[in-house]
Amino acid sequence: MQTERVTFLTSPDQKAALDAFAKGSGMSVGRVLREASSQYMAEAPLGDDDKLAILVAQLNEAVPAIAESFDRMITLIDSAHDELRQLRAERAGLRAQ
């Protein structure tokens, strides 16, 4: 089998993880990368409709948490406004006396 060299750069952490994975799997790093790249290329690329469906699902999942966050912010802002009104009233009462 004729081979060619492929070189890629990665972070030290990724390299360590790749080494550990290969060792734990009983494979060489080269074999792990060959198998991973073959599997990646064999997967059908997502079409625009598939990408949109994934984004819509993620958005539908995120919206309730976003709404809850906004509700908490509104409650905090309302509370701050109430405190400011109370402080203004107290100070106005002190000046009037």
Write up this protein.
By secondary structure, the chain is an all-alpha fold. The chain is 79% helix and 0% strand. It contains three helices and no strands. The protein is elongated, with a radius of gyration of 29 Å.
How would you summarize what this structure contains?
It contains three helices and no strands. The chain has helices at 12-25, 29-42, 48-96.
Strand-helix topology:
Blueprint: H1 12-25, H2 29-42, H3 48-96
Q: Give the helices and strands as they follow along the chain.
A: HHH
**Annotation, overall tally of beta strands:** 0
User: How far from one another are the termini?
Assistant: 98 Å
Stretches where pLDDT is under 50 for at least 5 consecutive residues are none
Q: What level of helicity do the residues show?
A: over 70%
Per DSSP, the total helix count is: 3
Structural class: mainly alpha
Rg over C-alpha atoms, rounded to the nearest angstrom: 29 Å
Q: What percentage of the residues does DSSP assign to strands (E)?
A: under 5%
Q: Main sheet?
A: none
Shape: elongated
